[in-house]
Amino acid sequence: MPLTVEASGVFPIAPTPFNPDGSVDWTSADRLFEFYHSIGSDGVTVLGIMGEAPKLEPEESIGLVKRAVAKMGAKPIIVGVSAPGFAAMRSLARQVMDLGAGGVMIAPPTNLRTDDQITGYYAQAVEAIGTDIPFVIQDYPLTLSVVMTPAVIRKIIQDNPSCVMLKHEDWPGLEKISTLRGFEADGSLRHVSILCGNGGLFLDFECERGADGAMTGYAFPDMLVDVVRLQKAGKRDQAHDLFDAHLPLIRYEQQPGAGLAVRKYLLKKRGVIASEAQRKPGAPLSAKARAEVDYLFDRLSKLDARAKAA
Amino acid sequence: MPLTVEASGVFPIAPTPFNPDGSVDWTSADRLFEFYHSIGSDGVTVLGIMGEAPKLEPEESIGLVKRAVAKMGAKPIIVGVSAPGFAAMRSLARQVMDLGAGGVMIAPPTNLRTDDQITGYYAQAVEAIGTDIPFVIQDYPLTLSVVMTPAVIRKIIQDNPSCVMLKHEDWPGLEKISTLRGFEADGSLRHVSILCGNGGLFLDFECERGADGAMTGYAFPDMLVDVVRLQKAGKRDQAHDLFDAHLPLIRYEQQPGAGLAVRKYLLKKRGVIASEAQRKPGAPLSAKARAEVDYLFDRLSKLDARAKAA
Amino acid sequence: MPLTVEASGVFPIAPTPFNPDGSVDWTSADRLFEFYHSIGSDGVTVLGIMGEAPKLEPEESIGLVKRAVAKMGAKPIIVGVSAPGFAAMRSLARQVMDLGAGGVMIAPPTNLRTDDQITGYYAQAVEAIGTDIPFVIQDYPLTLSVVMTPAVIRKIIQDNPSCVMLKHEDWPGLEKISTLRGFEADGSLRHVSILCGNGGLFLDFECERGADGAMTGYAFPDMLVDVVRLQKAGKRDQAHDLFDAHLPLIRYEQQPGAGLAVRKYLLKKRGVIASEAQRKPGAPLSAKARAEVDYLFDRLSKLDARAKAA
Amino acid sequence: MPLTVEASGVFPIAPTPFNPDGSVDWTSADRLFEFYHSIGSDGVTVLGIMGEAPKLEPEESIGLVKRAVAKMGAKPIIVGVSAPGFAAMRSLARQVMDLGAGGVMIAPPTNLRTDDQITGYYAQAVEAIGTDIPFVIQDYPLTLSVVMTPAVIRKIIQDNPSCVMLKHEDWPGLEKISTLRGFEADGSLRHVSILCGNGGLFLDFECERGADGAMTGYAFPDMLVDVVRLQKAGKRDQAHDLFDAHLPLIRYEQQPGAGLAVRKYLLKKRGVIASEAQRKPGAPLSAKARAEVDYLFDRLSKLDARAKAA
Hints:
The structure is a homotetramer. By secondary structure, chain A is an alpha/beta fold. The first copy, chain A, is built from twelve helices and eight strands. The first copy, chain A, has an eight-stranded parallel beta sheet. In chain A, helix 8 (203-209) packs parallel to helix 9 and helix 10 runs antiparallel to helix 12. At the A-C interface, helix 4 of A face helix 4 of C.
């Protein structure tokens, strides 16, 4: 299904499951997408920064997109197509749309500095992939070193009708959401979907500021789905209660560099994927880190049990 | 009191209280240091990055150090002396030591890249300030863009006998603490104190990894004191329970750029300082952010009340 | 004399002469300013990046400004006042203006990224130092990592009447000069002086693009004076002939990091300063580098001799 | 022919010739490689940073390698294989070696900081492409933001027997060559070829410091060949005379960003390629820049004529 400005809810960032020998674990990939579908995700994002995309052969990347399309019902699939050149970006974008993807996500190259460089880059990217492909702006200064003001984001959206979503991952970022929704209220910006990343670390308030949901890979996307649902239903305290119970683990998983290993370990613990293996070069969890995650997981389970008993 | 490698516990990073007209609020400064003293802090750090030091006139900086020395009992005062040149660093360091400070903290300039550049810089800094002044390495890659490996930190410590402490603020940083304590265990590194920053966001586990405590400015340093005490007493679950209750607020305060305003707002709410004013250029809280902090504060108060009732 | 938008010609960036023991060599400082004055410089810049300013004690900085004022006739003295905080910037700026300086130069802090951050910073700086002090924008992305578009520079100039000059040191930078002068032609930008840096490496064409001259520390400022004069007189080929003869040495001196040592060595060779010493931490010339500079100096001398004979 | 540690002389960095409609101009590509071959180049480098590699479709990249192999006699072809992930790097490396390339060039990703990160990256890259492929370290801090000390380069070379060359493009870089050759003299480093970049701006002295030649794309590679030959023959003054005549143009072409347009324009002027077109996104020359290049070209031609007449 094509991605539109009405997209809302939770789009998990899918990790790529590997076997311990480094090959793609297609069975786990299928199970992962089925899991995302079953818990009420509204779509999924593949080949993102946390999807180990640069370690994949082209046919593996394509394979993942096909599985996602096949397993996620008619829900929109977003594919990360950021690349060092427009040739590769165009080629991947057109290919995955033909396979049934709903849209693509584009991150700015890390050497962009001025407002004009950033808006110019997106204009060129859209010219390269074609104006018919719905695209997502990835705003992630912590990792990409590119700082986009609300005015720059507005210009990209207004100049490019095929822009349908902002993947919001600035930090701090709450005021940015308010500013963008304020632009919309004053008529200077058309509506696009805003989904938030940063491992979900601020999802509680991001919803209250006007975000439509989350696009992140936290190992409990079912909780993210519930928090967004509760917030949309106006059940603020319940949303925060649920969110706060997860916060020790969210915070642990959100550590740059180490986070992917935590995420895969938890997804394995939960029975979703078979192995926590990363393709080389990877950063495996130390024994101490593993024990810490176990400890937080146990505390969360006890809280859950207590909540259900109550 | 001179700072030594035995330093342990909590050294709050003191903000500088201002009156709404931009002048230093000396009454609040006195009350702030009295507060830190009364809750069982083991020392205090002034003129740090979050202390708005570059906005102060030289005599104001000196005034703050004097107040800290006067109000904190015999506890060691650490003074941030990072400067674009060694002339200013030396001059400030010698001056504050004469006034009774216990040691100084030195951050690397943001343009350092290679291991040799970093160790070379600390060698020069020590030559500049003199080998008789106890100093703290500030390892804060997120803000300073300087990445120090454990081996680099070891070399600085081993080469410079006047190094007594690491202000640990890498992110992620838990493995770094374990590696450094491992160096100590295998005899390749002498013992120094490790106090952790990052707003306290990982203090629960940092203590377990071998850190001696916290050096950070979270608006509830009393909680930091309790967490460190509980961890030292081996009361792990209680430490985490207390910590987790604060985590929503810790996380909110730890946002770069916005954090200082949150911290001052909370200290004012708690009656410690009279105004949340920052000297220009400052970033005040929006009405929405203020309401969010109020909401988290109320939730924390209810949790506290419930905990006390239990 | 106050610096105005009519400033033109050559403003050497003065190095700070030191004795081999690290103390300031005031005799050489006097001789240096006399030299600049005698060769027809139109002003001078002190306490710039290449003036080792952060290594100076406050009273030494002030001393240098006083000498420059005393020795340069009524020519305008520009003083670098960039600082990590506005308190120090204000204090130094007001002090040197009282001593007779003509204006101050302000570089943006290296962490600025967006257009708004840059224009906002200059607004705050002007508020801090006062609107009565003529100031120079230092645009030097290679060293400062801050990229200012022509539109950003225009906004700073238009918003701040006390801006009188652009120190132009972008690289590449020729189109930027043309764009700014184009803004002036189309009425969207008032006239300010543009003096160019980068060690003079593009001075030949910068003059042709509309720059008013040079602000740089190349060890033969007399040549810079002649090139600017020839270009103003429309003697293009002669200007290039003279410039090209110096280009091997200009290029050699313009190497980042190593350049200051080359510059001081050449000024010593020319009898202007007594020692090439840098205050610690410095980067002295290797024996090989010294021999290379000697070789280029000799080749230049032979070319000069031949030119005079012709 | 396989690339070995004995490689020496000039390896031009080949631009990719395009037709004005953006398609690859294969006729010009053939003529370009024939030109490089005929002037006495010792090899050629394709798909480098200045070869617009990221703008090429995979089959175009392969096509260029095939042409180079076919037209350059048995001379070694170096292929740039830097990529965001090791999957793409491995795949391209193995493919071009099968087609007859002599070796590959690998640049470090821009986010590497510490010594260990850099040496670790090259270890992983070699593991990915296989230890049987001769490779070149690309040391280019100005563009890549990765700073490699001589000790780090030594470790990469010593740890990886398949490393045969250093593409030296540090700036300043003369001392680095001397240090590396000093390592070789003291027995701590085996011999590898060192070819220099930076548009040739320091080739005169780089040869004297121990470099084996140049790997750069200056539009007069015939001059580079002559300078290296003269230096090897011990004709120092003649080498410098020839070099200095080109320096105004070398300097002009070496401007980051603008340089490729200058290079293509000059190669077109010289009749080597049919069009100066860059594939989008490109930065064409302004009319003023074009006139400046014409002016420098004419001055060079007159000097040449005079030199031949003498």
